[in-house]
Design a protein that fits this description.
alpha/beta; TIM Barrel; 10-stranded mixed β-sheet; 8-stranded parallel β-sheet; 11 helices
Length: about 375
């Protein structure tokens, strides 16, 4: 397969469309996240379902992260095969065939000094996991997931969670590790006050659940959860000990729509789709980056205008649906359309599924105007859906 670029190429030479990572901006984001976690005395375990790249997972660990979250067994397998040592499948796994893979992966990681954790929200799920791990020499960590507002997986907060934790603790191959309490819907509530209110309600549900553990005589070692949009509240709660924020690394157009919270670090856009104008009319220009190059589940991309130095801003063009291979660019009032052959930079609406459309992240240093290609980062878990 032809690569979009080679190391040492000027940014201008990167073929289009290509998924380009501004390494300088990304590293500033990492430094801000690491400082935030230290300031609040919490662990951070960034979600690798966003970047799907073992090299980036290891870079985050080198900066202070304790490991990586994933959502799928195959994501964990792909990252472990590429050297990631500490993985948490923050999702339920029920199918016996998948649980057999979980057991093999747990053994493999343990043999090289690593560890695997997983979430559960049902007695049947725990029983199936216990059967898959029967005879294992080392226990794996299991988190009980509670629903704190996402409305997806998870037990109702309260006594049911404590009962499931007791079931886990009774199995020699399993170790109760704490609570999984992630409020995904709160991440993209636009107003800062809305997000604060949503997490305040979630925190009360976690408190209620912790209170239900007291009669059971079982300690809760850790509460884990949080995302980039709300982490300031979980980190300052005194309840959460671990943050799972992942999108801070790249940011996307969806997060750009959130009202900033003054207490939250400012993270920069670091992920872009490089495209080129291939056609032009009096009404619009057409670029070569359609929906096969970026996800649209969270809306269409923003058009970015890079500066020669750090930063940049929104370009005076609006991206519209042009189909699988094309994007339509419309100019704001009084602005000229981009010229034929001109480079157009897009900020994807949603970074996670956008990354999953690409084999490689083209890492550049020195900016999007005068920089050059410094790394080609493999998307190790691309297509890891099982």
């Amino acid at each position: 397969m032809t690569q979009a670029a080679q190391i040492g190429d000027a940014v201008s030479a990167i073929d289009t469309p290509a998924l380009v990572l501004d390494l300088d901006a990304m590293e500033r984001n990492i430094a801000r996240m690491a400082a935030f976690a230290r300031q609040h005395g919490v662990r951070w375990r960034p979600h690798a379902k966003m970047h799907k790249c073992a090299a980036l997972a290891q870079r985050l660990v080198a900066a202070g992260a304790v490991g990586a979250c994933v959502q799928k067994t195959s994501e964990a397998e792909a990252l472990a095969a590429a050297g990631v040592q500490d993985l948490y499948i923050s999702n339920e796994v029920i199918a016996p065939a998948k649980l057999a893979r979980v057991a093999r992966l747990a053994r493999s990681l343990q043999q090289r000094g690593g560890r695997l954790a997983i979430a559960a929200d049902s007695h049947e799920g725990v029983d199936r996991l216990a059967a898959a791990l029967a005879g294992a020499q080392d226990a794996i960590d299991v988190f009980v997931e509670i629903d704190v507002g996402q409305g997806r997986c998870g037990l109702p907060p309260g006594p049911e969670a404590a009962q499931l934790a007791l079931r886990i603790a009774a199995v020699p191959a399993l170790r109760f590790a704490g609570l999984q309490a992630y409020h995904g819907k709160a991440q993209h509530l636009r107003g800062a006050d809305e997000r604060r209110s949503a997490i305040a309600a979630a925190l009360q549900l976690v408190r209620d659940t912790l209170a239900a553990f007291a009669p059971a005589g079982l300690a809760v070692p850790l509460v884990t959860g949080a995302g980039t949009g709300t982490m300031v509240h979980e980190a300052g709660s005194g309840i959460y000990g671990e943050l799972q924020s992942g999108s801070f690394l790249f940011m996307d157009a969806e997060y750009a729509g959130n009202q900033a919270d003054p207490a939250q670090p400012v993270f920069e856009h670091a992920l872009f789709v490089k495209s080129q104008v291939v056609s032009r009319s009096a009404r619009h220009a057409v670029c070569d980056a359609g929906h096969k190059s970026h996800a649209i589940d969270s809306g269409l991309p923003l058009v970015h205008r890079p500066d020669p130095g750090d930063g940049g801003g929104e370009a005076p063009w609006r991206y519209a649906n042009g189909g699988d291979e094309h994007g339509l660019l419309h100019a704001d009032d009084g602005q000229a359309l981009p010229a034929l052959g001109q480079t157009v930079w897009l900020i994807p609406g949603h970074c996670d599924p956008t990354v999953n459309l690409h084999d490689t992240l083209v890492g550049v240093r020195g900016g999007l105007v005068q920089g050059e290609v410094a790394e080609l980062l493999r998307v190790d878990a691309r297509g890891a859906l099982t």
